[in-house]
Amino acid sequence: MVLGRQVKFFDEEAFPEPEAALVGYAWLITEYRLSVPAPDEIYAIIPAKNAKRSKGRWRLLGSRYKPDAHWFAQLTFALKYEGVDLAIIRSLFIALGEQDVTSSILTEPTGAYSRRIWFLYEWLIGQVLPIEDATSGNYVDALNEALQFGCRPRKIARQRINNNLPGVSGFCPLIKKTDAIVQYIEAQLSEKAIRSIGGVHSDLLARAAAFLLLSDSKASYSIEGERPPRNRIERWGKIIGQAGQKDLTIDEIERLQEIVIPDNRFIVPGIRVTGGFVGEHDRVTNLPIPEHISAKPEDLNELLSSYLDAYHVMKVSEFHPVLMATVIAFSFVFIHPLEDGNGRIHRYLMHHVLSASGFTPKGVIFPVSAVILKKIGEYKSVLESFTKPRLRYIEWEPTGEGNVHVTNDTIDLYRYGDMTRQAEFLFACVKDTVEQVLPEEVRYLKRYDEVWEYLNNRFDMPHKDMSLLLNFLTQGKGRLSQRAKGKEFAGLTDEEVAEIESKYHEVFFSDAL
């Protein structure tokens, strides 16, 4: 009997080649048994000296890239090739302790990577190391902006570091500089939106904006599987239309929840005081089956305070609005600070950041929820790409009320993380809005007005009947149903109906406009 070779695994991924050896963050996680989510990309060294290739999640580099088997060399490799992963770095520092970190930095105290590691330790741990302030060496960026998006730097004289991390030590998700995101930014979608509505009459633009607001509000409820009465949809649409006008605070979040859930008899309104999860209950035992577990209630004050501080840092440093909206909106739904209403407020926050930053044209709200509804499968996948890897690091027990009680320290799971997939998704939604949804609605209204004017000049018909006729034609793709011809519009002759249908087709199905 011949036994097959032993297959090695990392983060449930089989090694792509027999000789592959973990390096960088993967090496650190394995060597120090760090209980922290692995990076999306796993780096490994293979024997071929100059190799550089990818296989799925794996990034394979040749032996000439291999660092020494010491945490300092491995972290230096990670910072150089993988970027900054704050959750892994903080977990590593806690495992190492002050003495080990200090002695390693002092072997080369003026080196660029030494100073970056020194800065990250004091920034993340909040403890000053027994090292004299740096007096030489050029200022270096904390974040390599060839790999990840940073913000306007703040100079830190102690380590001679440009702190360009887009957040604060207590909250700082990061986004990789992928080709897709760079292309979205270069497309200048905000300017494109402004150009597309520049020649539109203000009255028509106001009507388009009103429709898009209502469409977005309705879609946001639909995403949650709800069908509220029209007055609630209109009320939430009105709130979306005011996005960006008020400062984002805890009070504002609680105000929004009151609007989303006017009947709060079945929840405790405001910031959560109990555990929370997204998922189902076992039909027999009523035990929770979580797909996502919310941040612990005792962590929420600290988390939300840092979350709002990070938003301020991003705003004043002019971090790109869509990247900022990604971090603020998606982090909110991952933290899940409320008993109910998190999803709708999460999508509202996209509008808030884009409007407050001036990214969306004045008087217009991008109907992001309406686009998300069309991409609902992808949206769920994007949410799960962040939440699922974290579930295995959360220890919990069921409560008597069918809830969850988290028993380990989980705050860092919500403070840090990679939000590249979320950013690419939101950019795609914004692009669809700018290039398709907004122009299509303006085109529709122009065509609608042309047919309206024709009907108004051709027939002595009440406006309410003209509106109904146009709705029927739209529903029938330019044809009036036999029922409508025999009931609501029995007064029209067959020739007149044919003339109206012909005009509708001429206007709506030509490429003239």
TrEMBL record:
SUPFAM superfamilies assigned to the protein according to its UniProt record, in alphabetical order: Fic-like
Binding site for ATP: 340-347
Pfam families: Fic (PF02661)
Molecular function terms, GO-annotated: ATP binding
Domain of life: Bacteria
Keywords, comma-separated and alphabetical: ATP-binding, Nucleotide-binding
Fido domain location: 248-399
InterPro entries per the UniProt record, alphabetical: Fido, Fido-like_dom_sf, Fido_containing
Nucleotide-binding found in the keyword field: yes
Active site (catalytic residues): 336
Protein name: Fic family protein
